[in-house]
Specification:
The chain is mainly α. It contains eleven helices and two strands. A two-stranded antiparallel sheet has the order 1-2. Keywords: Membrane, Transmembrane, Transmembrane helix. InterPro entries: Peptidase_M50B-like. This is M50 family metallopeptidase. Pfam families: Peptidase_M50B.
Length: 292
């Protein structure tokens, strides 16, 4: 894509635009999309760990819910619950990196659009917010992927920036309502408490301590993932691989004319292989005519 300064300007412009219109109606649609990505990450982790996904729902207040039955092994619950924040950070970083590199942009957009549509049809109820959000964004992303490489690249950068920014903003929930977040749910589980304990007004101290430890770990991982991806994306330079002399000759169409061979020989280059000959093999061309 663009060189480093242009990449940084594009990224900074998107950040400032999103912040400036953070409370706009369009941005609310974008937030619901990112929340859907968060829930899909939960569902994907459940499926990959051998669990079952029963449904995905959005509540319209930047909140969502994934109803899943994790696999029987103990670590599967930790994996599924952790996948929301960490997974959305990975998705944002991945899309941002692909967009800045400009590689496989159209294919990525088309696959992402089809994936969102499929997940919405399979795991959300017809007509509900999660279904409408997934279909709307899935079709939009699919169409953008069909419009060409440039549109796809810009769309990937936009989506990657939006998901990454909201993923970092979403971490503020840990400070405001820890027990209602995934970190709080995992803390209750690790403390050996059940779902009914979530309704208690008084939160046990052990849950608060565990919750903040989990939240801190997830925050560090999320920030680290996005920072490393952004650093790599902004410093990525397109490689220009110039062929060697030997490769150039292999790619040269047709046979060299006698004049071209003579020109190369005078400069110490073997016209058959393209290899520069050592100085002691240089000769005077054309050969001298010593005939009387």
């Amino acid at each position: 894509m663009a060189e480093k300064p242009v990449k940084f300007v594009i990224f900074l412009s998107l950040i400032l635009s999103l912040v400036a219109f953070w409370d706009h109606q369009f941005t609310s649609y974008l937030k619901e999309f990112v929340v859907l990505i968060h829930e899909i990450c939960h569902a994907t982790a459940a499926l990959f760990s051998g669990g079952v996904v029963k449904g995905i729902a959005l509540h319209g207040n930047e909140g969502g819910e994934t109803i899943a039955v994790p696999a029987s092994f103990r670590g599967s619950f930790i994996l599924v619950v952790s996948a929301g924040y960490i997974g959305s950070s990975l998705v944002g970083a991945f899309l941002l990196r692909l967009g800045f590199q400009g590689r496989h942009a159209r294919q990525t957009m088309i696959l992402l659009g089809l994936f969102l549509i499929s997940v919405s049809v399979l795991y959300s109820k017809l007509g509900e917010l999660a279904y409408l959000t997934g279909i709307f964004w899935g079709v939009g992303i699919l169409v953008a992927g069909m419009l060409g490489e440039t549109i796809s690249i810009l769309s990937l950068v936009f989506l990657g920036t939006s998901i990454s920014l909201y993923s970092l903003y979403d971490l503020s929930d840990f400070a405001e309502r820890l027990t209602e977040t995934d970190a709080g749910i995992l803390a209750f589980w690790m403390a050996g408490l059940g779902p009914e304990d979530l309704q208690n007004e008084e939160v046990p101290t052990v849950v608060v301590v565990l919750g903040y430890m989990i939240a801190t770990l997830w925050s560090l991982l999320s920030v680290g993932i996005i920072f490393m991806s952004l650093r790599s994306s902004l410093s990525h330079e397109e490689s220009h691989d110039f062929p060697s002399a030997e490769e150039s000759f292999e790619r040269f169409p047709g046979d060299l004319s006698p004049e071209a061979k003579l020109w190369l020989e005078k400069r110490g280059v073997d016209p058959e292989s393209g290899i520069v000959l050592p100085p002691n093999l240089f000769q005077d061309f054309p050969p001298k005519d010593n005939s009387p």
